[in-house]
């Protein structure tokens, strides 16, 4: 069998940092970021070959996709993110590349080039691929043989995380996702590099399918002016879809839209493929011109009493504009309603315009009629025109020519034309009765007043103390009596409710003010003050009290 073999051999070694152990001593290159560093910062930095004779060409190559300020310390000037540089070392040299990541971190990588006076034979006898050109997803088999070898390492420059340690003779199936350089490195039993070889596998991308318009249609290809139609579409394998109703706005791959064409219109659908290919379809909706059609124009109440309202309603087909003219002049929609309150008989004219300027109209009349007679109150009185506070009385009434009755102060908005209601006024109160005729005309007829007799005000008959001046820790007794009271409170530092007539003893250590607060049956509040003056304690009194407390505690 005959194979096409591209073999790139070097006398030196291609040193790459991998995830496997072992390798040449000294600094090494890096294909991937170290743990904890900026992801994707260093793709690779390598020297080819890595062992040369003095003054021989060595190619330094690097790929730092997201880096800035890239420099080789041995070479002046900034470098591109991806590139190569030829150097000719006369002695073993460590080359250092330094750059900044997108986060601002400064990271360096190194590669060692060994200069030897004696050439080193390449231990790799052969390294070839069954297919040097494949389509994406296909496989190629790599074959190799290395002499003076303990192991080989197979790496793919640019293929994510591909590094394998393999025997010195063998083959392996690979499925690269894109074109790249494959490198085989051989190591002896002392883990020293003894040979390297590389080849390139070309990967052809998968061809992109063409866009396809599977459906583009409408539910009406022929309709009347002002009517609507729905447009539907389904597209596959498209990177963008555009409809002529909004030519600059991308649409979904499948969808629908409602249109209202006023004239015959052609609609286009355009689909763009991933590779730039464009396909399109079109159809035409034919629009028929028709005169406006007044389907409805009427008044809810064509006969009105003065002050009443009615609602005009209409529905017009095939129209572009509608005007309503009478005691008003307004532009309205093709269907709707409007409330009017004409003071006299009025003609209302509905004028409808078509899409091409055609005009039709219809007139209705709302007639004003004479009002009905006003209601008459036959009687309106209270069983008791004067009551005591808290008592109730009954209102009674009868109204002729009546639709309904309302009375302020009675908890009902609508009362019968003849009836009664119980009220309990809190004070002298007016109860105006308003009677409404059957047609809604209203007239306030009677204002009835109910007088309320209030109880007498509260009184404090006496409030005094047995002694108003006492020594320290002595007692005094307060006496009081009140009348016409609903509540009595004795207030000092605290407040307590007490009887209408009573007495209470207090032992005081300082001058204290008291207030007797009385709330009357009529709600009125009165107060009486009383102060008890207490002499300050003497030193002997304080000493005696201290001794007593010590004796109790001891």
What does this structure look like?
The structure is a single chain. The chain has 554 residues and is an all-beta fold. The chain folds into 5 domains: 1-206, Immunoglobulins (Immunoglobulin-like, Sandwich), CATH 2.60.40; 212-288, Sandwich (Immunoglobulin-like); 293-368, SoxY domain (Immunoglobulin-like); 376-453, Immunoglobulins (Immunoglobulin-like, Sandwich); 459-534, Immunoglobulin-like (Sandwich), CATH 2.60.40. The protein is built from 1 helix and 47 strands. A hairpin with a 5-residue loop joins strand 23 (265-272) and strand 24. The longest helix is centred in the last third of the chain and has 15 residues, at 539-553.
What's the CATH architecture of the largest domain?
Sandwich
Largest sheet: 6 strands, mixed
What's the end-to-end separation, in Å? Answer: 120 Å
Q: Structural class, from helix and strand content?
A: mainly beta
Unreliable segments (pLDDT under 50, ≥5 consecutive)?
1-37
- Mean of the pLDDT scores? 83
DSSP strand count: 47
Shape: flat
SS strand fraction = over 45%
């Amino acid at each position: 069998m005959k194979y096409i073999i591209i073999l790139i051999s070097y006398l030196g070694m291609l040193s790459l940092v991998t995830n496997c152990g072992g390798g040449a001593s000294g600094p090494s290159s890096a294909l991937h970021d170290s743990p904890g560093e900026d992801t994707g910062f260093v793709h690779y930095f390598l020297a080819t070959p890595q062992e040369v004779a003095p003054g021989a060409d060595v190619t330094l190559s690097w790929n730092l996709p997201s880096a800035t300020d890239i420099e080789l310390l041995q070479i002046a000037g900034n470098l591109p993110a991806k590139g190569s540089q030829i150097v000719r070392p006369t002695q073993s040299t460590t080359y250092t590349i330094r750059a900044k990541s997108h986060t601002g971190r400064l990271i360096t990588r190194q590669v060692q080039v060994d200069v030897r006076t004696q050439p080193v034979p390449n231990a790799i006898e052969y390294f070839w691929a069954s297919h040097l050109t494949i389509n994406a997803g296909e496989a190629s088999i790599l074959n190799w043989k290395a002499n003076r070898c303990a192991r080989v390492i197979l790496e793919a420059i640019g293929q994510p995380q591909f590094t394998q340690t393999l025997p010195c003779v063998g083959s392996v199936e690979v499925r690269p996702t894109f074109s790249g350089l494959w490198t085989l490195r051989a190591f002896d039993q002392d883990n020293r590099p003894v040979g390297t070889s590389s080849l390139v596998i070309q990967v052809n991308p998968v061809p992109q399918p063409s866009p396809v318009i599977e459906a583009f249609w409408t539910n009406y290809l022929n309709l009347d002016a002002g009517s609507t139609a729905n447009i539907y579409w389904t597209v596959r394998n498209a990177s963008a879809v555009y409809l002529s109703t909004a030519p600059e706005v991308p649409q979904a791959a499948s969808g629908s839209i409602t249109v209202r064409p006023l004239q015959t219109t052609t609609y286009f659908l355009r689909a763009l493929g991933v590779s730039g290919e464009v396909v399109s379809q079109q159809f035409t909706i034919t629009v028929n011109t028709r005169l406006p059609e007044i389907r409805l124009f009427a008044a809810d109440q064509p006969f009105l009493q003065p002050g009443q309202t009615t609602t005009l309603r209409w529905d017009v087909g095939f129209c572009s504009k509608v005007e309503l003219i009478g005691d008003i002049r307004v532009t309205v929609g093709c269907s709707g309603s409007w409330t009017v309150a004409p003071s006299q008989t009025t003609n209302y004219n509905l004028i409808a315009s078509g899409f091409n300027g055609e005009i039709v109209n219809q007139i209705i009349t709302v007639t004003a009629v004479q009002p009905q007679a006003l209601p008459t109150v036959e009687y309106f009185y209270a069983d008791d025109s004067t009551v005591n506070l808290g008592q109730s009385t009954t209102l009674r009434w009868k109204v002729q020519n009546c639709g309904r009755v309302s009375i302020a102060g009675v908890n009902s908005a609508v009362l019968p034309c003849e009836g009664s209601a119980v009220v309990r006024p809190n004070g002298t109160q007016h109860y105006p009765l308003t009677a409404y005729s059957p047609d809604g005309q209203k007239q306030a007829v009677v204002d009835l007043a109910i007088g309320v007799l209030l109880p007498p005000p509260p009184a404090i008959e006496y409030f005094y103390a047995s002694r108003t001046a006492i020594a320290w820790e002595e007692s005094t007794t307060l006496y009081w009596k009140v009348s016409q009271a609903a509540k009595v409170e004795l207030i000092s530092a605290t407040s307590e409710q007490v009887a209408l007539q009573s007495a209470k003893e207090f032992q005081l250590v300082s001058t204290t003010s008291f207030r007797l607060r009385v709330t009357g049956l009529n709600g009125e509040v009165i107060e009486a003050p009383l102060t008890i003056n207490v002499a300050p304690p003497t030193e002997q009194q304080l000493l005696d009290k201290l001794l007593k407390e010590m004796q109790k505690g001891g």
